[in-house]
Write a structure and sequence with these properties.
The complex is a heterotetramer, with two copies of chain A (77 residues) and two copies of chain B (150 residues). Chain A is of the alpha+beta class and 77 residues long. Chain A is built from two helices and five strands. Chain A has a single domain, classed as Beta-grasp domain (Ubiquitin-like (UB roll), Roll), CATH 3.10.20. In chain A, a hairpin with a 2-residue loop joins strand 3 and strand 4. Chain B has a single domain, classed as Alpha-Beta Complex (Aldehyde Oxidoreductase, domain 3), CATH 3.90.1170. The chains are: A alpha+beta (77), B alpha+beta (150).
Chain lengths: 77, 150, 150, 77
């Protein structure tokens, strides 16, 4: 299975990239993806997650073809 | 309903006028319209700010704005909703966001406009990076909209 | 601060633009503006309404509007307040009232705009006489502005 | 002493005039003025009063040169 991983704003700066593709077997959660892609960085509290443009929980499972995004608190408007 | 994310300067009053041409046939059913415009200040958290970069999540941002507008139309009796949000490099005094609602009744127009604005700030993926005299910094949090500040 | 009682058609967006030229020097201190426009509907209390006459108490009306604006400026941190109210003969879809406030912060702009509008409805001397198919009638009461209707 | 009395909107229709001058001795309240000027009409409940453009109470006393206004509930905005 393969997924696309995206990082926005300060999380993109922290991780040092804005997106990457990730191959994996099965049973990966949102939090697992963060740990696989950013092993040196603790996920800042208040971070938000979206799978395929819908807000999701840290324990949600990814499936083949998903796009998972990590981002800091929102500051628009 | 008009939902736009734009990457260059927009004029909120022109946008309102354009929306009003869309609803001209039911103009005489509308008793109230409420508009909110957020503009960039040249100060924040005690520092002077020269410019700002507004990042968004293309696709998800537009989807969230549409959901916010659709939900508002189910909750309030609205004739029209317009949301315009700026992205990219922006300078003090330039508009960042316009929320506009039209209704038969004033409480519906006021309540929906404000609620859409709060929903936008808390759930639409936008992030501000400010350029100050000390370099750039990401804005950490939006403050609450029903309290005294911002 | 601009307070006007006008006896012919006015354009709320032009009035907003005119106010913004007045505050151009502190434009970059303003983060939020909130505008409310009340327009005439062609229906009320189940009847179709052809036109309306808006009576006021010349002198007292202007004085009350000024007091409302001045009190709002003491209660909220506002950079500018504009109130325009129509009087005389008016037709469906025409604007009746504009309330506009500008502030550094959005809660201040939203709260003050709404409060001024409610104060205006409850304390500024204006009376509406509607022309319906059954003749003319004075409107008896404004409905509450923080509830569901009007 | 003399005062000016004004009637607005539905009260003006009821009384059949929009203003009049009134001469009197002393000690006249707002309500007394209504009874002197509109003896056939009961003052509708919810009516408002203003002396010299300031809202006033029914028992407030008039003085020479005052302008007193009677009007129904407000319906502007």
């Amino acid at each position: 299975m393969s997924i696309k991983v995206r990082f926005f704003a300060s999380l993109s700066d922290m991780v040092g990239k804005s997106e990457m593709d990730l191959e994996f077997a099965e049973g990966l959660t949102v939090l697992d993806v963060w740990e696989k892609t950013s092993p040196d960085d603790l996920l800042p509290s208040g971070s938000l997650f979206a799978i395929n443009h819908n807000y999701s929980e840290p324990e949600d499972l990814l499936k083949d073809g998903d796009e998972i995004a990590f981002f800091p608190p929102l500051t628009g408007g | 309903m008009i939902i736009k994310v734009v990457d260059n300067l927009f004029d909120p009053l022109d946008e309102i006028r354009a929306s009003e041409t869309e609803l001209v046939t039911r103009r005489s059913k509308i008793g109230a319209s409420s508009f909110f415009v957020g503009t960039m200040r040249d100060f924040n958290e005690g520092d002077s700010v020269q410019s700002m970069f507004l990042e968004h999540y293309s696709g998800m941002t537009e989807k969230r704005l549409e959901e916010i507008a659709v939900l508002a139309k189910t909750k309030w009796s609205l004739d029209w909703v317009t949301i315009v949000h700026r992205i990219g490099q922006i300078h003090p005094a330039e508009p960042i966001v316009l929320v506009a609602t039209w209704s038969a009744h004033r409480a519906q127009a006021f309540d929906s406009c404000r609620s859409i604005m709060e929903q936008l700030k808390s759930t639409a993926p936008f992030w501000k990076k400010e350029s100050t005299n000390d370099g750039t910094r990401w804005v950490k949090n939006n403050t609450a909209g029903y309290s005294e500040n911002d």
